[in-house]
Amino acid sequence: MAELPAPTEGFVLTHFIVVSDVERSVRSSAFMNIRVADIAALYQEWSARGAEFLTPPQQRATEIRCYIRDPDDHLIEVGQSTARP
Q1: Cβ 6 vs Cβ 83: under 8 Å
Q2: Do 4 and 13 meet the contact criterion of CB atoms below 8 Å apart?
Q3: CA distances, 17 to each of 14, 34, 80, 84 (Å)
């Protein structure tokens, strides 16, 4: 997979569709990845507005991630890169 951009402010939105049958998957599911500059601030802000995260921000190999679902129950990954350029 290509390296995802690491924003220094704001966020970058990436929509993934990983499929073996494009036609079938047009009727199926996908997931979204939102890359942010400050995941702790976003987590606090969205939580204060009523968002219910599945996990708090957690350190992974080269990023911090947390997860949330949209109103249709689709998974959304929110991440902040911790890798140095």
Answers
A1: yes
A2: no
A3: 10, 14, 21, 27
What residues does 32 pair with on adjacent strands? 15, 76
Report the predicted TM-score, pTM, of the whole model to 2 decimal places.
0.69
Residue range 20-76, pLDDT digits in tens: 887 887 777 667 788 899 999 999 999 999 999 999 999 998 899 999 998 878 889
Counting beta carbons within 10 angstroms of the beta carbon of residue 83, is it exposed (0 to 12), middle (13 to 18) or buried (19 or more)?
Answer: exposed
CATH superfamily of 11-81: 2,3-Dihydroxybiphenyl 1,2-Dioxygenase, domain 1 (3.10.180.10)
Domain locations in the chain? 11-81
